[in-house]
Amino acid sequence: MIKEIGLDVGSPNLPLNDPLFGGINAELLFVMKAPEADADPRLTNTRFLSLDNDDDGAANIFDACRRNDIARSRCVAWNICPFPIDGKNPSPSELRRAAPYTPRVLSLLPNLKVVVLHGGPAQDGWDHRLLGRRNGVKVITGASPSPPGINRQTNRSSFERAIRDGATHLSRATDI
């Protein structure tokens, strides 16, 4: 699907999802704003949307998942704008352009239990009608895992709470 999106938007080398994630078996979906340096069209090698990437946002999610016992195999990541954006945050037109892609991702996740929307752009681009009749899927909002915002204590707390709440909901869904 990522290759199709890349062709649709004229950015043929978008980062793929880390194969260590849960893929279609994932129960937790992390939604962020957009690919950044890893989507630079000048890069031609294969890159991944991964918790192992060399950036603070990935490291923060990696550490929070470890602290909350969320196995990577239970997760998958998605960008509300799955293509490079022009500014710091997606514009309304970029969010509209991206809107058809998220339902396609959700349709590939039959075991989904939790969606964590990281940051304002992910929350702004999320349509709560996307889950339709899928009962029991919890949508949680929290701050972005990336600097500079995460460096403010209120944002750090919001991010940590979202991950913790996601872990709690996952454990409850597993116990049922």
From TrEMBL:
SUPFAM superfamilies: Uracil-DNA glycosylase-like. Gene3D superfamilies: Uracil-DNA glycosylase-like domain (3.40.470.10). Transmembrane segments: none annotated. InterPro entries: Uracil-DNA_glycosylase-like (IPR005122), Uracil-DNA_glycosylase-like_sf (IPR036895). Residues 22-163 form the Uracil-DNA glycosylase-like domain. It comes from the Bacteria. This is Uracil-DNA glycosylase family protein. It comes from Antrihabitans spumae.
